[in-house]
Please model this.
Amino acid sequence: MFEELAEKARIALYDKYSLGDLVVPWRRPQERAHGDAATTVALQLAKNLKKKPQEVAQVLCDALKQCASVEKAEVAGAGYVNVWLTPEALIRELQTTETACAQWPTRKGEGPVIIDYSQPNIAKPLGVHHILSTVVGQCLCNVHRHLGYEVIGWNYIGDWGTQFGKLAVAWEKWGKGKPVSEHSLDELLELYVRFHAEAEKDKTLDEAARAAFLKLEQGDKNLRSFWEGVVQVTKASLSAIYERLHVRFDLDIGESFYEDKMQPILEEGKKKSVFVKGEEGSLIVMFKEEEKLPPFLVQKGDGATLYATRDLAQIRYRIDTYHPQAILYVVDVAQQLYFQQLFKTVSRLDWKLPLLEHVVFGRMRFKEKAMSTRKGTVLKLEHVLDEAVTRAREAIAEHRDSIQTDDENALAEMMGTGALVYGILSQNRKMDLIFDWEKVLALEGNSAPYLQYTHARACSVLRKAGSKDAPSLRNVDVFTDYVFTEHERSLIGMLLQFADALEEARAQRMPHTLANYLYGLCQEFNSFYNVEPILKAEGATKALRLFLTSLTARVLKTGAFLLTLRVPERM
Model:
């Protein structure tokens, strides 16, 4: 559609003003009252042409009215051009929405997009705060992959560092002589918490932990065996949570992998005078005064490495091995300064870099509970998921007259986990999140249950229509003299925005734009459903309405899947 309008507008501007190869941009207006397509090109050209924007816009309108696909074109406001398409053209355009529901062909030769997300620490259960990075990152993986990008979803696990020294000391002192492989993740957490409690009274424990980690780095066999056991116990425990959230990683290479890859980076940094001597023999990066960044520590005075050292080696490894076009780090706002320092450091090393982007998200407040594993008060994600499912089961019982299901447990799991995830993804990731159970489990409003119920409603209509195959409108000629009702045209307009919503969610790294689009589609469909007869309609009208119902169901299912949700066919 836009290609035809752009070409007609280009020719008109060339004929009138002798403008050369001009690309006229078109967009779909958010407001239905502004038509099916709009352009601001007249406003952009008027000054150079020494014409009034409305005059240039009128030239475009006069030309566009000659298009067979254009029903109406008008000049609006200061020089906008709004266009309404014929029913045949709009229905033909819906094929772009059908296409957007299928995974796009892989883009060749551009290099993968690496998305670094979740990032749990070994020996600790996932806290509820981990769900933010996990579901935002998975959604971005899903959307990029759906749009044809090669994606590497990477769980960069915290399986190295001084916390292992602390845990090793705690296990040696209070592990009751039990092999680490026989400890549960909760027991390992208890040991970690006990270490911090005891260290407040015995200051020698911290020094012992640092010494233990240094021995681990130097290859101590007993500590290596202990470390491997802890990693295995943790991964086995986390996999069940990821499964419930429909989270899949392509790689889960953690910090320890870079153990033998850090020294060359340190040597390179010293040789290039990027890393300089700091206090007590440490290595630091000093930034220019105008950069307003504090010194960046890359090696401790005792020679021990840090998270930053491993991150530098990780970037180098990812560039050399995968040649990515971008690396996206889905990490909370507290690490904003760290990533500024990290990205500035690698630019100073003069590497050929892909796009490096910190995808920031805010903090989550959840019933005012503290989330510090040091104090043992972490609100476990597993428990929150269980509570979500329990509340969903109560909501099903409360609405028994309107909710129908053959498998109440499966529906409760779908609703509960969906409500938790959608409650996060439907909000601007850059803002702090206040979680509200009543809101996220509501059957009305911007919630997962509302989306799931709307999908089930559309599926119910299609079942009653008696056809297992989705309706098709390949023959658009039957709509030559068709006149849309207000609700038909409004629903079509909303369906036509799906591809744009996907691209905006990807380009801006904003899942909530996709969630909000799906909410708007649910509202439009339910308005259409409540006013327009579907099964009782006849001829072309029935065919169109069944097609719109089918396409709505496909878009809702596709969009929900990309948000990591699942939708039922009965509810």
